[in-house]
Each structure stands twice: as structure tokens, then as C-alpha cells.
Design brief:
The chain has about 190 residues and is mainly α. It is built from 6 helices and 3 strands; from the N terminus they run ααααβααββ. The termini are far apart.
Length: about 190
Amino acid sequence: MIQLTQVDEIDRLDKSLRLLRVEYEKFFNGALEIPPAQEHSKLAKEIRQLRTSRRMTSVERFRFIQLEARYNSYSELFNRRLRKWEEVGHSSASTVGSSPPLDMRKGVVVRDRLSASVVEALYTELTNSAQKPRFDLESFRSYLSHQAGQIRRKTGCDAVRFRVVEVGGQAKLKAKPIREEQTEPPG
């Protein structure tokens, strides 16, 4: 049996955390019928086991603490979204195919206020292709809000279309001011 090093275990934890986020996004977009609770609890168990490890170097411990913080942040976000989803009274059958998921490659139009689903969809699209996100969801939300307001003030436009494009193999966020008559997504 091959013994995993701490670095391997931390890498595996990072990958598992990314996969858990993708699974939750699939659930909230209607592609999965039930939330990935088993994967969530399995990841929590892995984190508890690694937390008690005495074999980590300071660099490994630092990276582990960052991953644990991201896990806690995601858990809080997922739990909040699950509660909201349950309060609205969704059943698993009603979510599948009920509304098409947002296509971030075509773009979304933001008028006055950013909805949480738009911010999360843009964030997910940008961070899915990145090695490590350089920002958290809340920072991204305030950045988008600031950018939309600035663009509207500078250009006098009615709305801003945000979309994700791939440039040199990396996902990039693009913003375009639009007038009210241009709010339909491009075909």
C-alpha cells in the first residue's frame, strides 16, 4: 500500500473541495436531484483527520488552514442556499429543468442590483477553470457591484452585460455597457 505524503493529502483535499462545490452547483441548477450531503460529510471527516495530524510542516499547515477556511466558507454558503431553497418550497422534481441555467459565455444583464444567483454563476464560471481562486465570493460580489456602478456612471448606459470569455486558456470577465434596447443576449 502506498503511503500518501501530507502534500498529497492536502492536494487531494483541495481537489475534493473543488468537486464538492461543483456538485452543489449542479444541485442548485437542477442537474442533481439531491444535495451532495455524503460528499460533504466525507470531506468534513478528511478535514478533521488532517487537522489532528502532527506531521505537517509550517507551509503545509498554512495551506491546510486556507483550505479549511474555504471549506467553512463554502459550507456556510451551501447551508444558507439550502435553507433558502427549502423555504421557497422546491421539490427535487420541480427543480429539474424548471429554468435553464445562466449561460455566462453569452452574458447576463445587470440593471440596478446584482442578484445572488448571477454573482454565484459568474464566480463559479471564473473559478472553475482557475487553479486557485484569487478572491472569495463576497469580494467578487462587491467588485462586480462597484464595476457595474462605475460603468453606468461613466457611460450613462441603462445596464451592463457581464460575460465570461476564454483568453489564452484562462477565463476572463468582460463587461459591456448597453442601452435598454440592447438588453437581449446575443444570439
